[in-house]
Amino acid sequence: MFIHRLPSIVPSIFPSLIWDKKADAKENQVYFTFDDGPSPEITNFVLEELDKYQAKATFFCIGKNMRLFPDLAQRVHVSGHSLGNHTMNHVNAWKVTHEDYVANKIACDDVFLDLAIPSVGFRPPYGRVNRAIIKKAHEWGPIYMWSLLTGDYNASLSPLSISENCLKNIQAGSIIVFHDSQKAYPHLKVILPEFLAYCYDNGFQLSAL
Question: Has residue 87 been placed in a domain?
């Protein structure tokens, strides 16, 4: 069974990571986030759908993709959305040395500097962290996790099951993970319009982190 919403005990074990924004959510704010881009067809689709609702979101970008598509990264930025670091090469913290992981994260920071785009913070690929990464939180700034993981990349899920399991759990302060990636696109193009309409109809304001 896919876990869309983590048990409440998990955030309590890692309180230095940001799991939601309930404490300072105003006007029923909800936070859509998109991992693994930018990717031309998919990121453009996302931006167009967000524009229909004057919604703002946060894009946790892979550095190598920002290098490949700098104009698209700039489009995200000038459209009023925020961008964050998702490492240079989508590195799994459990499969590389800490030194290599830090170097990959810093390489992505350098891309942000080169493109003159501010980074809102960091999201570890796969949501995988370790003690050494958590200790870096005070140096790296905000490390964003999530309230709801749509699982849009998971081919074993259906768009209907994603909507049924996630929409009922959206509340003020929720941080929701989508992916603007080729792998997720078959599901994303179905569920994103549904999520946007649901939030609009229920009075949620979609904001960037």
Answer: yes
pLDDT, position 10? 87
d(CA 163, CA 150): 8
Number of domains in the chain: 1
Residue 136 has pLDDT above 90, yes or no: no
| The three-state (H, E, C) secondary structure of the chain, written as one string | CCCCCCCCHHHHHCCCCECCCHHHCCCCEEEEEEECCCCHHHHHHHHHHHHHCCCCCEEEECHHHHHHCHHHHHHHHHCCCEEEECCCCCCCCCCCCHHHHHHHHHHHHHHHHHHCCCEEEECCHHHCCCHHHHHCHHHHCCEECCCEECCCCCCCCCHHHHHHHHHHHCCCCCEEEEECCCCCHHHHHHHHHHHHHHHHHCCCEECCC
165 within domain boundaries? yes
> For 122-141, what is the mean pLDDT?
91
Q: What is the CATH number of the domain that holds 130?
A: 3.20.20.370
pLDDT of residue 26 exceeding 70, the answer is no
pLDDT of residue 24: 66
Is position 185 within any domain? yes
As a whole number, mean pLDDT of residues 136-154 equals 93
Per-residue pLDDT of 189-203, as tens digits, reads 999 999 999 999 999
